[in-house]
What does this fold into?
Amino acid sequence: MSNLSVISGKPSESLAKSLAKRIKANLVKSEIRIFPDGESKITITGKLSKKKSIIVQSIYPPVDTNLLHALSLISKAKEISSQVIAVIPYMGYARQDREFLPGEIITMKVLGKLFAAAGASKIIVVDIHSQIGLKYFSIKTKNVSAVPDLVAYFKKMSLKNPIVISPDQGGKNRAKEFALKFDSEYIALKKNRDRKTGKVKIKTKNIDKVSGRDVILVDDMISTGGSIIKATQFLKKQKCNRVYVACTHALLMNNAEERIKKSGVTRIVSANTIPNKTSLVDVSKTIAKAII
Ligand code: R5P
It folds into this structure.
């Protein structure tokens, strides 16, 4: 048996399989049974290495359930392996990293304590919404970028004079990184989100640079699709050509894919941190580099 085990949580089975293959680890699956009252019974269905176990589990909806499952897998692995690494490709709650309105709980602070208490000695995440959230962890943390993998995908496409655009100022550095690797220009739009209603508005006035050009909208995540839809409607008014979306985590809540396509987006390309129809880019190699 390899002295390295990869435990695949249900939400990340295919990514865990690719990762185990790359790092030559023994793949151990987990099984979930949900009782009528909503409680989960989680079972690990194989033998774990005494040396090192790596849990792979994204925390996407149902977020709280998947979070508890990830912590449970870590806790079980720690009973057997002396070192436990948590690979959380999509880190739910990452946007709750500060007190935006008085009284709000910084859930990332709570998660920092929970991951350490469960037994993880290191956590690896992919394109976490903001690095601030990782400051609350006392264990080692590593955030890896899916941008090089997304760029490799877009390089294979033939686009018309492409320009990279971030829907907001918060994503400026990500767009810059994408544009540098893609060898194109980039712009970050100004976006405003109402903290109470969640409604999004694009504040940027006219830009002439996009006229007749293909656009790649780069974002860390799509949740409701509001940011991408508003940005696309704005860019279409600026007479851009086709709009593509490159994002790491495509949650695509409430029929977001359909609504985004309706707004004029030609294709959404996301990473396999969240498995779905748009997750065309594999990040297992990038995660493997952070483990070895
Ligand atoms: C916001 O700052 C993030 O980078 C994303 O743009 C945002 O979370 C996406 O959410 P939604 O799809 O609901 O607009």
Q: What stands out?
A: The longest strand covers residues 26-34. The CA atoms of residues 172 and 188 lie 5 Å apart. The domain at 4-145+282-291 is CATH 3.40.50.2020 (Rossmann fold). The chain has a mean pLDDT of 96.
